[in-house]
Amino acid sequence: MCGIAAGKIRRIMIGFQPKASAMIPTSPGTPGKPKLLVLGTGFAAFSLLHRIDPDCYDILVASPRNHFLFSPLLPSTTVGTLEFRSIIEPVRALQRKTHLTFYQARCTAIDTTTKLATFEGQFDGDTFILSYNVLVIAVGAESKTFNIPGVREHALFLKELADARAIRQRVIECFERAYNPLAGEDRDRLLHFVIVGGGPTGVEFAAELHDFLEDDLIKAFPDLVPAARITLVEASAGILNMFDRKLSDYALKRFARAKIEVRTGAMVKEVTARGVVLAEGTELPAGLVVWSTGIGATPLVAALPFPKARGQRLVTDETFAVDPARSIYAIGDCATRAGDELPATAQVAQQEGEYLARQLNTLARGKPGRAFNYRHMGMLAYIGDRRALADTGYLKGHGFATWIFWRSAYLTKLVSFKNKILVLFDWMKTWIFGRDISRF
Questions:
Q1: Contact indicator for 55, 30 with CB cutoff of 8 Å
Q2: pTM for this prediction
Q3: What is the pLDDT of residue 31?
């Protein structure tokens, strides 16, 4: 299969029946019970797993990470406002409820004819195969680089906890290196932080970094922080373009007051080890470059032989089926419905996962499903100095009160009670003791 040597493949085909038998593959001890294979552990997959009926399916889950990440609060972990483990939930925590089987591995190929998926283990690189009856592709997306030279080599992304930790380490490193008496002329470069991308992630990271400088690093490096600079580079004419124009303009004014430079209409030509080169030739020396310019398809999605829309997202029907005849579905950032392109956001992915779980439960019981109805809950963004934006159907606001609303909304959306308590204590700890500036 796909040119993989048979000697390198460990086949895990639980109760798999040859295709010639025309029988549905089943798991041991559950005759006639179909196997549901879910690829991914993001918002879409995790929402589905919370609501899928384990009496209807044997549930297999595979993903390179063994946890769910509450990504809307990821920028807060880059500077220590929140701790990393406060916004993750282990996938295996669902085992008692759903009796799922989890493999920490990356899917590398799918044979839709034989209903076999090939995986590469996350640790040892061993290759194995899983059979399935129903497949849900929820692998998310990757950061889009637009093939700009040097991005992958020299910039840091902000998609996973490992990215946030790398950014946190680099920020402290830049200040420690700049404090060195031998830093000399390199000091200005080390104290310049460039964020590429004016969407919510880029804006919120710039805001969190500004708070970190003004609230905490100023105490440890009083001579360096006044010289530190933050620059936000955006290719379009404005930032937070998905928000109401008045709100995005307010964010620009707040950034100007905080001395965060915003360069709109600026295209990046190259990222080097020492900074960013813009298309018009301007060089921005930097100690840290964070890349947050949108999403693109993962290698698996790009290789799948299904119709794709803009951004290489899989095109599905109204029930999120990519191939209804073969029971293949796609949800989350990696997919979009034909004729109804929804944004690649957490709330969309969450609602799609909830819907598909109900749909699969209904189909397993032999009943007709219902149409998906997306409910837009609005958008929130933190812009620093205890200020936030809210653009919802019933509230378009900004300021301190909106910041309270922003925190309250995300606190209620966290998956588990444990996460709610951890995040609440992290906010209190930061308010009382400040953010930690250790590097380890």
A1: no
A2: 0.90
A3: 57
